[in-house]
Amino acid sequence: MELYDLLAQVVETFERLRIPYLVTGSVASMAYGEPRLTNDIDVVAGIREADIPGLLAAFPAHDFYLSEDAIREAIRKQRQFNIIHPGSGLKVDVIIRKETPFDRSRFARARVAHPAETYEAAFASPEDVIIKKMEYYREGRSEKHLRDIAGMLKVSGDELDEAYIVEWADRLDLRPIWDAIKRRLGEKT
C-alpha cells in the first residue's frame, strides 16, 4: 500500500461515515509547499463513539492495527489514536477535533484538494497548516516543521492570508516563532 492509497481509504471511510475531517500535517504542507518523504498522514476528525464500529470494520485487524480502546480513550481525552498498516509501515495519526475557536476556524476554512487523480479530500488551509506547524515546533523544536513552513511560504506565499496567520499567531502565543521565521526567510532572499 502506498501513502496516497491509505489516504484514499481514510477519506472514503470518513466521508461514508459522515465524519468531518481535515487532512493536515506533512501531507498538507506538501500539497501547498515542497515535497518531502513521510510515512504518516495527519487527519483531524470529529469522531464520536457511534463511529467506532464503522471505523473498526473499515480497517480490519488482518490488514491494520486499530485499537478500539485507543479510539475511546482519544475521544474521551480529546487526543489522538493511530491507524497503522503494518505491511507498508504507514501510519495515520487521527487527531480528535476539539471545540476550540481555532478548530472551528480551520474547519470553516477547509479546502478541497486532489491528493491523487482518483479522489478529492478536505484539507486544512495552508495558513492553518502553518499555524499548527508553529505549535508543533514550539512543543518539540523539530526543524522539519520550520522547513515545511518555509517550503509553503516559498511555493504558496503570494496566495497566503498573512493577516490571518498573524492574528492566530498572536492569539496562540506563536508570534515570536512567526517573526523568527519571517526574519530567517528575509535573510535568505
Topology diagram in text:
Layout: H1 3-16, E1 21-24, H2 25-32, E2 40-45, H3 52-58, H4 68-77, E3 80-85, E4 90-96, H5 101-108, E5 111-116, E6 119-123, H6 126-140, H7 143-156, H8 162-171, H9 175-188
Parallel strand pairs: 2-4
Antiparallel strand pairs: 1-2, 3-4, 5-6
Helix pairs in contact: 2-6, 2-7, 6-7, 6-8, 8-9
Short structural summary:
The chain is an alpha+beta fold and 189 residues long.
What does it look like?
- There is one protein chain.
- The protein has 189 residues and is α+β, with helices and mostly antiparallel strands.
- It has 2 domains: 3-125, 2-Layer Sandwich (Beta Polymerase, domain 2); 127-188.
- The protein is 53% helix and 18% strand.
- The chain is built from 9 helices and 6 strands, in the order αβαβααββαββαααα.
- Strands 1-2-4-3 form a 4-stranded mixed sheet.
- Helix 6 (126-140) runs parallel beside helix 8 and helix 8 (162-171) crosses helix 9.
- The radius of gyration is 17 Å and the shape is globular.
- The N and C termini lie far apart (40 Å).
Shape: globular
Number of helices: 9
Largest sheet: 4 strands, mixed
Global Rg: 17 Å
Helical amount: 40-55%
Q: Which structural class should the secondary elements be placed in?
A: alpha+beta
Provide the CATH topology of the largest domain.
Beta Polymerase, domain 2
What's the helix-strand series?
A: HEHEHHEEHEEHHHH
